[in-house]
Design a protein that fits this description.
This protein is of the alpha+beta class.
Length: 553
């Protein structure tokens, strides 16, 4: 544990003394079973997820901008330099992990688009005798109108009127698109799909106010199984048509559009800091737990170019011009939030947590190998049917970004082994950062877990209805895409996917401390509760996984 380099270096003893002074922060994470503090270290916790941001990006930026808001935030609190997000490193398991304390094997949430062998197809109304097995889609496809930023609410004057969007996005989810629970024969909303409770639910039970802003109505999942965790959930649809930009493009296809989109959520959080709901219509008090995600960094990493600037990285870990501009944008917005907290005299009672749902891979442009996974999966299905005349396709569902997750129609170990052998024997030609042909072997995979070994990889039991039947760890630099429109992705298990920033600063924390030991973003959840004076063991995932509180108090 050490002080940030821009300040005089503390000795370990001096750092320990400072930690003790703010309530017992130690170099080792505190067990969640420890008694919660009699008095909260904070009255408010503001959680910010800068999707795609790596710890190396934060270090690069703050070194070059030592007086920036991000530098002040990192230097003014506890910076964890070896934090890892969930695996798979997708938005949904990443955010769910931060707010439940659990990994996918516990929460049951592996990706934003997965499969369950226990649920029934959407639209099922008579459930007796219906064969289970269905895609579980947590994307914009659930919206009543996925082409509108209000997800189908029908507001006029969009996008300028978007802050008038409802704080109850379940009203904007089309139930006919939801999987059906065979036990009730009713559509299963995202919040009911989650297997464990959330920080928001624990806070609500304690009588505290909650709010959140994110990118799809399906983030209703953060409400938790009760469906009542978040009192004000602002979820403008990021994959809707971006008004004022090229026809047919959503808010992620132009980085300027993404920044505009993120700006709406920042305005919502500013309103909440001021004590209003996200729309600034009702004065309700500043939430105890609230926050948002930023998408601007993620799109700047993935787009080959936007707004006349080259996207991604110039060299290994060196942000290119578009990404550097996006980091400037996020810094300005974080600065606006911190300024508003000071303006409202809330800085002394608010802890800010900065992290990311996921990283992005590769950060070395020379390593990029784009592979079209379609022919690989088509070939696997054809080989299976050739070997098993009369059989249906073997692949029930696939999610391939920079990892490969497959759910099979035949869940036997023999079928999983068949798929593994086939995929590891495939070679072909993809394309690199320059668009030129680039050969690949083993379907672009480094390791492939199949059947029981895939379940063990996620620390769950074989045969679990949600766990993938195959989990492929790609070779570094592989991105599964059919075109040349992406130069990076997430979801995989490389350091570029997993190594995210984690900063805890403000009320209840010391200043200028750096923790270099490994921590996990699932530790954010029990830490939030501890900061608020609540018992972290009220979280079911914390009890199951023994998730420890970060060394903050």
């Amino acid at each position: 544990m050490s002080r940030r380099p821009s300040h005089p270096v503390r000795t370990i003893a001096a750092a320990a003394a400072a930690l003790a002074a703010v309530g017992g922060l130690t170099a080792a994470a505190t067990p969640a079973s420890a008694h919660a503090p009699a008095h909260p270290g904070a009255h408010h916790v503001l959680l910010l997820s800068v999707d795609g941001l790596h710890q190396s990006d934060l270090a690069w930026y703050t070194a070059r901008h030592p007086h920036s808001a991000l530098a002040r935030l990192a230097g003014g609190g506890v910076e964890y330099t070896h934090a890892a997000t969930t695996n798979p490193s997708d938005s949904f398991p990443g955010m769910v992990g931060q707010l439940t304390g659990g990994d996918p094997g516990t929460t049951g949430v592996y990706y934003d688009d997965t499969y369950s062998s226990a649920l029934l197809p959407a639209g099922t109304t008579h459930c007796a005798g219906v064969k289970p097995g269905v895609e579980v889609d947590l994307t914009e496809d659930l919206d009543k109108n996925k082409d509108s930023i209000d997800a189908g609410q029908g507001l006029s004057g969009l996008p300028g009127s978007i802050l008038q969007m409802t704080g109850d996005p379940t009203r904007l989810i089309d139930p006919s698109k939801l999987p059906v629970d065979p036990k009730t024969c009713r559509p299963l909303y995202p919040h009911s799909y989650l297997r464990v409770n959330t920080v928001f639910e624990v806070a609500r039970t304690a009588g505290l106010r909650t709010a959140w802003s994110d990118k799809h109505a399906a983030y209703d999942i953060l409400d938790g199984p009760s469906g009542k965790g978040i009192q004000d959930l602002f979820a403008p649809e990021i994959n809707s048509a971006a008004t004022g930009y090229a026809a047919g493009e959503d808010w992620t296809k132009d980085n300027a559009a993404t920044q505009q989109y993120d700006g709406y959520k920042v305005r919502a959080v500013l309103n909440e800091i001021d004590g209003y709901d996200h729309s600034r219509t009702h004065e309700v008090g500043t939430p105890a737990v609230f926050g948002m995600n930023f998408q601007s960094v993620s799109t700047a990493q993935k787009l080959p170019a936007s707004d006349g600037l080259t996207g991604g990285y110039q060299a290994k870990g060196v942000p290119g011009p578009l990404l550097a501009k996006s980091l400037d944008f996020v810094d300005q917005q974080v600065g606006a939030l911190l300024t508003e907290l000071r303006k409202r005299h809330l800085d002394g009672s608010t802890t800010v947590v900065l992290s990311a749902k996921h990283g992005q891979s590769p950060t070395d442009p020379k390593a990029l190998t784009r592979i079209d996974d379609g022919p690989l999966l088509d070939g696997l299905n054809a080989a299976w049917k050739s070997a098993h005349p009369g059989a249906a396709d073997l692949v029930a569902h696939a999610v391939d970004d920079d990892a490969m997750l497959l759910w099979l129609t035949d869940r036997s170990q023999a079928a999983a082994d068949f798929a593994k052998a086939y995929l590891l024997a495939r070679s072909g030609t993809g394309n690199g950062i320059d668009g030129k042909a680039r050969p690949f072997t083993a379907s672009g995979l480094k390791t492939l877990y199949a059947g029981a070994s895939a379940a063990r990889y996620f620390h769950t039991r074989p045969g679990d209805s949600r766990v993938p039947d195959l989990v492929g760890i790609s070779q570094y630099g592989v991105v599964y895409t059919g075109g040349k429109g992406k130069i990076a992705e997430h979801g995989g298990a490389h350091a570029d996917d997993l190594d995210v920033p984690l900063v805890v600063a403000g009320a209840g924390t010391p200043r200028g401390v750096r923790v270099d030991g490994p921590v996990h973003t699932t530790q954010i959840a029990p830490t939030i509760l501890r900061l608020l004076g609540l018992d972290p063991r009220k979280l079911e995932a914390v009890r199951i996984e023994h998730t420890r509180v970060l060394p903050v108090r």
